[in-house]
Amino acid sequence: MKAILTLAFKDIKLLLRDKAGLFWVIGFPLIMALFFGAIFGSSGSGDRASIKLLLVDEDRSEYSIKYITKLSAIETFDITQVPLDSATLLVRRGKASAYVRLLIGFGKAQQQFQSDESYIELGVDPSRSFSKEIIRGMLTKVSFEMMTDMFSNPKDLLSDINDDMKAIDTSSTIADSQKVKLKKFFGGLSNFLENYDTSMMQNNSMQEGPKIVTKAITQVREGPRSSYEITFPSAILWALIGCTSAFAVSIVTEKTKGTYVRLRIAPISRAQILAGKGLAAFVTIISVSVILLVFANLVFGVRLDNPVKLAIALCSSALCFVGLMMLISVMGKTEQAVGGGGMAIMLIMSMTGGGMIPLFAMPGWMLTVSNFSLVKWGIVSLEGAIWRGYSYSEMILPVSVLLGSGIFLFVIGTTILIKRDG
Amino acid sequence: MIQLQNLKKQYGSILAVDSISLDIAKGETFGLLGPNGAGKTTTINMIVGIVKPDSGEVRFENKNGDFRFAIGNTPQALAIYEDLTAEENLNFFGKLYNLSGKKLKERVAFALDLVGLESRKKDFAKTFSGGMKRRLNLACAILHDPQILLFDEPTVGVDPQSRNFIFDNIEIMKSEGKTIIYTTHYMEEAERLCDRVAIVDKGNVLALDTVDALISTYGGASVVVAELAHENTETSSLPYEVQGDKIVVETTNPLEVVQKLSACGDTFKSIHINRADLEKVFLNLTGRSLRD
Ligand SMILES: Nc1ncnc2c1ncn2[C@@H]1O[C@H](COP(=O)(O)OP(=O)(O)O)[C@@H](O)[C@H]1O
Ligand SMILES: [Mg+2]
Questions:
Q1: Which domains does chain A have, with CATH numbers?
Q2: Smallest-distance ligand from the CA of B17
Q3: Which candidate, A297, B57, B65, B196, has a CA 20 to 30 Å from the CA of B256?
């Protein structure tokens, strides 16, 4: 095992020093993912793209209308007003990120600074914690802005108070002793407001936001959330192709550069030499894939909600392509023959297997052809884990095609290699 | 120590090694001398086990444990990673021979020092000259301190400085009592380094003996050349016929000729004995020159 690690470590080091090789292993796949992702545009809404927000205004007060106008002005949000039942449905189907429901009494409560009861309901999928926090933050911000506006225009408030005082005067239901007390209070308040410095309010940072109740609405997964959920699985397959090609060529390079002779003379078995190559390829494939996935998740909100299934998909894809690498490495005797021939085979596989045209966009006959492409099965397994919502039993088909053909190719490749050595 | 019995290897229609049998003793430096394509590399590859002979076998005596630990090979085709530094190459190959830690460090330092690459150890092998690459190639072979060393044309395409380095290295190994197999198509190298030499051609051993014995058996006559001191010397009294301004005598007894010539007093500016060499031996055995 130590020898295998030594061998694999050496190969990875050599790859890291090979700028051209690195480009095909990670640069090119990333470019493909970004390029096609941008071209296809976002069909759903990625977490970082504008957040599609539904508004259910049950309060229908002057205040709530003003509130919604303020929310709509925020660039992050793409706001549509709908009734509650459609809002719930749309969020469940993933057509919108969340809904905000303003309950009856919302305007009044906000104006009177009541904070013990909540009049805002946020309906969102529990896994979208990022969207949730953004929305919460924005709601709080708008509430404060409304409040600030109120105090920044004390004249409005003053005329309200004067109206109130007149109403008290003319009221028949209020006792006279009470009228005196109330007038004293309102008089003091209007005095305060007349001398109130508006900048004080604006500088004052408020501690507490409006009370928001969150309602969990579990999204039914039925499609990719964005074009990047399609282009990144393809990109991983491009990375696999790059790795496969790089390491197939490195096997030939060992022979043409004579280092294979030294490896064969060393006290290690041929199986160890091959295992070293396989391990190096496997580790590289997995590392590059993880880098691509994490990047996709952080930047484009590509979901990694099923890490176990994703790991299964990645490992079986990687093993499959290690087998392919073995076979490609014996396709020719020079680096050019193996590099060129290998790329040709894998380009065809990629074109027919969804590396360029996404599988969902393929006509029927092409889908049939794609069954012969290992790239297709790799993409299907990855998409299964990312957005197709595959169950474990649904994963069995792509995974066993990948593993089966991987082993088959590996055996043929190594058999030819060993025959040639003798 | 190493026995080759009737080794044979054919590549398609090319008979690389026809039938080679050798018995190499412990501690000796054994030369395989022959022109390009004679089958030297194929023979070496069969000895180290990377080419399987069509028939015949290779035997190692008193091998204890894995014989691969006892062998160090300097292949004719450079076997180093160009994108690793000299030190990284050595560390990598050392680890394959189970060297690690302090021991590995020591051996790498020793090997670098031996081939004179200590100051360049942090440089990538691809930046090295041909001679330096050959020296690194050699260093990789001796790293694990093997008892048996094989050098397959280690001086091909090498500058004189590196060539001397390599000769010195091999002589050190020789003095340490290592068993050495050295292939070359340069007869001077075989004469200088080897205790015994097998002359190979077209996959067969034509002759095998010490250098001296080979020359006296197959080299034929020596040549004595005497140059006249003055142009108009009376030549009729001389014991041999004069051609131009010198006397050239082929003889199996050069000392007798020299004695006769020196009896003529100061007639000659110089007298040389050109002893037969391995080149001559090869010519006599095959009718061809070593280098064509
Ligand atoms: N792998 C091979 N495939 C085909 N022919 C080979 C191979 N290796 C050596 N030969 C041929 O066998 C002959 C002997 O080669 P080699 O052992 O390399 O000679 P040397 O080392 O003495 O120059 C040559 O004619 C060479 O072309
Ligand atoms: Mg050779």
A1: 2-41+227-421 (no CATH), 51-216 (3.40.1710)
A2: 1
A3: B196
